[in-house]
Every structure is written in C-alpha cells, then in structure tokens.
Amino acid sequence: MRKAAIIGCGMIANFAHIPAYRHLPGEFTIAGVCDVNEKSAADTAARHNIPYHTSDAKKLLEDTQPDIVSVCVPNKFHAQYIRLALEAGAHVLCEKPLALTKADAVELFALAESKGLMLCACQSMRFTPDRLEAKGLIEAGALGELYYGEFARIRRRGIPKWGAFHIESISGGGAFVDIGVHMLDAVVWLTGNTKPVAVSGCKSARLAHSDKLATGLRDSGALTGQTLSQRVYSDDEFNVEDFASGSVAFENGMRINFKTAWAVNLPDETSIVLAGDLGGIRLPEFQVYSGFAGRQADIQPKITAANPYPKEEFGGHFQLLDHVAAYLDGREELFVKPEETIAVSAIIDMFYRSAKEGREVTIDEL
Question: What is the SS3 string spanning 42-77?
C-alpha cells in the first residue's frame, strides 16, 4: 500500500485525483492534503474523509511521509512543489503542463532520475480510444513516414471564469497552456517527435474583455459542473490569451500547425490531423485517407479499444492512476516519457517567446 498526498485542493484534485486514488484502495491510501488556502484544505479533507490537512506543503510531506504526491497547484507553482516533493523522496504526478520552460523540465527530470523517482505529467487525454488506436496504426507503419500535422482545440465560448486561469502571474498563460497542451502532448506522443527546433506563434485576447454571450461551467472545463473556487472572476484581471495559433517545426522536418481558443467566433472543435506518405488520419473520427486496389480510399477502421470508465467525467485520470500503479509495481513501462514532456515544455517556452517578440524562436535560444 502506497501513501499518497495532494498539494493543491481545487477542482482537479477533488474531482479527478482523489477519486482516482480512491478507486484503487489496494494500491493507494490518501494520507493528507494541502492548500495555501487553509479552508480549501480543510474542506477537501472533510469532503473525502482524509485524516490530515494543512496549508504548509513542507509540513504535509514531513508529517505524512508520502510515497507519491499529486501536484495540483496553478501552473506557475508546479516546479517548486515538484522539487519539494522529490527532495522529500516521493514520486510525483503533476498536472499539465509539468513545466512552462524547457530549463525547468530538464532540471526536474534530472532531479527525479538522480533520486530514482517517478516524475510524470498528468496527460490524461492520451487515453481516449481513438488516440490509443491511432498510436497502434502509426507504430505498425500504416501511415508511413509522417511529415505534416494539425491540431485544433476550440471552445467557441469557454473562458474559465473560476480559479485563476486568466491571471498570467499564476497560470503562466491562457488557452494554449491550458487546453492546447493536451493536443500538443498528443501530437508529440503520436508522431514520436521529441525534438522540436522552432516555433512561430501568436496570441490575442479579442473577446475576453467585451464578449457577453452566455456560457456555462462545463463549457470552460468544469466537467462535473462544480469548481469549488472561492475567487470572484473579474474581466479586469484577464491578462492572458483567449486565442492562440502557430506552427512547430521538428528536427526531422515535420511541421505541426495549430489553433486553440477559449473564445473565438468559430465552431467548437477538438481535432488532430496527421499526414504520412502511405496514409493520413483524422481524429477523433478515426478516418484514414489512403488507397485500395489502385484507388483513393477513405477507410474507417473499427475501434476496438474501449473507455473503461464511461461514467467518469475525468476517466483519463482513472486510467492514468491505473497505469502509474502498474508502473510502480514494475508491470508496465512509463507511458508519459520524460523526453516527451520536455519537448512539450520546450514548445510552450518557444511559443510564448515567439508571441511576445513577434518572430520565430528556435530551440537554441532557450
């Protein structure tokens, strides 16, 4: 039995991490929770019948001696709490993005390796059946050599008006680093490209301060319809992007174009398109564009993978914890690899520099 501790007691801790740990009572027990807001920590402990809570992360680690820590704090604070947990001798599962810069990601994985500990980014959206099946097709060579791709993650109206997603000094960025990162990770993983060399990007906030169209909590990512946030949202605090677009070049010549938004006058979209010299694919439709008997053919392979947690809004977290338990038991290799996460952090780093300076930024500049 491994002891788990949670740092950060917001929505994702309460409705994703804690239920996922509790789903595996033979593998994990939750020893304690922590939040800088004492009331949030106390409320979370009471809500889930957890025996220990505090507002001091160092005290949490000293008093509970956890084997694994979930870091669920805002993005800008990931690195400091990952470092704290690793230094305390705990494995770490951190919410995405694990780090906002390449330098931080490299340092943190080096620290984890030096201590023989797991450090894993919580890229829970890899576990959708269409993406798992697509990975199998790609590894089997069905698409040939991949050389181009696109992804889109568009919320027509879905600015998170809870928490501090909209404040740069806390979140580190807006739509790109919040929802775009899931797609970015998926493309890096699917294509096996872990060596980005340049990013050209732009960002804007055209609707955040003026749009008055109705929206709801689910539209902005609070999938259970609850947030637990005690912060009152204000447009005046919004200083991140509601729309981002750009292009990523990789060492092997592949290029990925993207667009992502919390608010834009376009239809909702979650899509990945990849082109190879033997075939192309569109997700989530799982449509393959190739040939058959000398003719162009649109092929619809059958998806045999199934979602094992169809009733869970955050089912990806349940699957990730299943995997982490198997990894820690030595039954599986780590699914979210360090080099993939470092590549994602490097792209984030280059994107925000590019958007700020209005030019392409290369990996050598980081």
Answer: HHHHHHHCCCCEECCHHHHHHHHCCCEEEECCCHHH
**What are φ and ψ of residue 179, in 5° steps?**
-100, -30
Domains of the chain (ranges plus CATH)?
2-122 (3.40.50.720), 129-313+341-365 (3.30.360.10)
- Cα 220 versus chain centre, distance: 15
Q: What is the mean pLDDT of residues 28-48?
A: 97
The position carrying tokens 């030019």 is: 359
223 pLDDT exceeds 80? no
Distance CA 174, CA 238 (A): 9
Name the CA radius of gyration of the chain, rounded: 20
Mean of pLDDT values over 242-265? 98
Contact 284, 270 (CB under 8 A): yes
Q: How far is CA 296 from the centre of its chain?
A: 36
The three-point CA angle 338-178-125 to 5° equals 60
